[in-house]
């Protein structure tokens, strides 16, 4: 299954032997969002919400940022973060949570998301069953 997901997600440049697992020390959520979006601490902290046990940022704020951001690369990064948060790892409806930003942040280091995506697919199927 891992090989099929790798082919489906087209992850050839990622290191297959470096699977994603959440680190023991995770940088603060707003710092990761600053890195991904290129926005200020004030902009980000004003939009972070608490949903259950995790911190999230509403999708509508990310959508507005995608439409208005002057940096093309940051637009793509925010759009990809949104897809990961809303489609692949949905936790809070209409929000992107801090776990997704951790995974997305580590993709730049060549870590493959395939095992995490596969595990999430099995978790979701089990929940529906």
From TrEMBL:
The record, for InterPro entries, names: DUF7745
**Which residue numbers delimit the DUF7745 domain?**
2-127
Q: In terms of domain of life, where is this protein from?
A: Eukaryota
One Pfam family per UniProt? DUF7745
Protein name in the entry? DUF7745 domain-containing protein
Q: Which organism is it from?
A: Gossypium schwendimanii (Cotton)
């Amino acid at each position: 299954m891992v090989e099929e997901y790798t082919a489906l997600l087209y992850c050839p440049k990622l290191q297959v032997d470096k699977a994603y697992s959440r680190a023991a020390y995770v940088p603060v959520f707003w710092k990761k969002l600053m890195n991904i979006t290129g926005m200020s601490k004030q902009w980000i902290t004003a939009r972070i919400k608490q949903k259950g046990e995790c911190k999230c940022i509403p999708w509508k704020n990310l959508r507005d940022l995608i439409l208005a951001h002057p940096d093309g690369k940051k637009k793509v990064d925010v759009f990809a973060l949104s897809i990961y948060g809303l489609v692949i790892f949905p936790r809070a409806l209409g929000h992107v949570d801090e776990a997704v930003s951790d995974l997305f942040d580590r993709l730049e280091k060549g870590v493959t998301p395939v095992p995490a995506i596969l595990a999430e697919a099995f978790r979701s199927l089990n929940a529906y069953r």
